């Protein structure tokens, strides 16, 4: 961050304020880790902080410190709107465009309070008064750790804050396997463990807490997987009927897309998930190496993200969407 921005933020935070902290819609481990980590940091510094999530977060993150205090906009629009309108400062974490919060965008775009953005995605919008944006980082939580250090408050990072930050780094780094996991990332992780983070327990809470229905859904997704070996690509799909059959809840499809990359010779993988309520096919893309799924998603499926992890959507039917994907893959070099 620019030194002048750091000083300005230090001045903003020098007196107690009402502060709203907002993750993106369908928040993941990094979004929840960064917002809750910041929440505990701000409370520790005398502020009235509230995390307002556009919609529910996955059940496998419900163990996180103070997750029970998170306000869900979709469930309580009147009170959440009041919190946002009364905020004297607004933090947006793990996204860089207001459309990522869905219906809340209409409210946020009218707020007079200054915004602070902390994010690691490409091409940030210019809505924030202060922006800490850097695509070199593998997670917003790693950036939050730096942000707290920039403010001269590293000593404020206790076990609770460290637990939140650790969770976000763990999940967004693919358990420290993705390319943006650096030596610095591991040095931060070591610092967090030294602060008491239960580094052997958290992966179990996040990854090994499945319902029987989720395991059945995973089995169906693996059965549905198709390999396009000539194009180093694999993909799978889940229809709304299949989701319903296995009592799908939010978070149950998390991580399924990565299974394609475990196949020898595969460098590009995708999952197509039908959402009958929104009348779209939600898509997740993953790659390894130099194939840029961010650009692929932007160019073809109204999406984006990172070089090796991105998302998109399609308003075509499942069959039409999959056919479009196969056609596109057949015409590009992977």
How would you sum up this structure, described in words?
The chain has 334 residues and is α/β, with parallel strands linked by helices. It has 2 domains: 3-206, inorganic pyrophosphatase (n-terminal core) (Alpha-Beta Complex); 212-330, Diaminopimelate Epimerase, Chain A, domain 1. Helices cover 37% and strands 18% of the residues. The protein has 12 helices and 12 strands. It has helices at 3-12, 29-44, 77-86, 105-108, 140-150, 159-172, 183-194, 202-207, 212-223, 240-245, 293-300, 318-330; strands at 18-22, 48-53, 71-72, 89-93, 115-119, 130-133, 226-228, 233-238, 268-275, 280-287, 304-305, 309-314. The chain has a 6-stranded parallel β-sheet, sandwiched between helices. Strands 7-8-9-10-12-11 form a 6-stranded mixed β-sheet, with helices on both faces. Strand 1, helix 2 (29-44) and strand 2 (48-53) form a beta-alpha-beta unit. The radius of gyration is 20 Å and the shape is globular. The mean pLDDT is 96.
General shape = globular
How do the strands line up in the largest sheet?
Answer: 3-2-1-4-5-6
- Which spans have pLDDT < 50 for at least 5 consecutive residues? none
Number of domains: 2
Q: What is the fold-level CATH name, i.e. the topology of the largest domain?
A: inorganic pyrophosphatase (n-terminal core)
